Amino acid sequence: MDKTSDNKDIPQIFEDFKSGEWMYAGASELPEVSQKLDEIADKCFVLNSLKQSQKAERQKLFRELLGSVGESFSILSPFRCDLGFNIHIGENFIANYNLLILDEAEVRIGDNVMIGPNCSLITVTHHPDALERNKGLMRGLPITIGNNVWIAANVVVLPGVTIGDNAIVGAGSVVTKDVEPNTVVAGNPAKFIRKID
To answer: For the residues 28-39, what does the mean pLDDT come to?
Structure first.
């Protein structure tokens, strides 16, 4: 994978967040967090304002935005992420319209992965206790997607999930737990449907 981002401008809070521990990390209390989120939101805005035919400019912006990405990829607009530098994508990646990645923790995507339209990969979760949640207590858990995975339209992948090689996630699924390699899952929550020969 091609390393593209420079971590020198990443506030320490984002590195600490990768531990998976509960942390007070509300953007309203931490100006460096708010500033970084605004910076990435602005980059996504610029990226999404480009025509799909402006391939060179789009690829350049993606390489600046993401932690790493393979030589061959296609990500249709609109695309949105929180930080970008926590996203690592392999070769021959295809993402259809409206991919959202909340990457407070790392998101690692293997080779030959296809993601349908209107999908969300969510690494961040808020505390179940309302008082703590209102104070900004949250944590991030990584998402890992193996090689040759197909995630169909309107899928939500929740924090801490690993999707194994060659798996298929059916349209409209909410993936709350790990998906075994060579399986088809679907539903809310996503459940085992069958093995893939």
So the answer is: 84
Question: Stretch 36-58: mean pLDDT, rounded?
Answer: 96
Nearest CA to 112 among 74, 142, 84, 77?
74
Within its chain, how far is the Cα of 87 from the centroid?
6
Q: Give residue-wise pLDDT tens across range 147-165.
A: 999 999 999 999 999 999 9
Rounded Cα distance between 154 and 119, Å, is: 5
Between CA 104 and CA 66 the distance in angstroms is: 13
SS3 (DSSP) at 132 = helix
Q: What share of the chain is helix, strand, coil (3-state, %, to 5)?
A: 20, 30, 45
Q: What is the pTM of this model?
A: 0.93
Please write the tens of the pLDDT for every residue from 74-86. 999 999 999 999 9
Which strand ranges, in their side-by-side order, compose the sheet holding 124-126?
A: 23-24, 137-140, 124-126
Catalytic residue numbers, as ranges: 126
Rounded distance between C-alpha atoms, residue 114 and residue 104, angstroms: 22
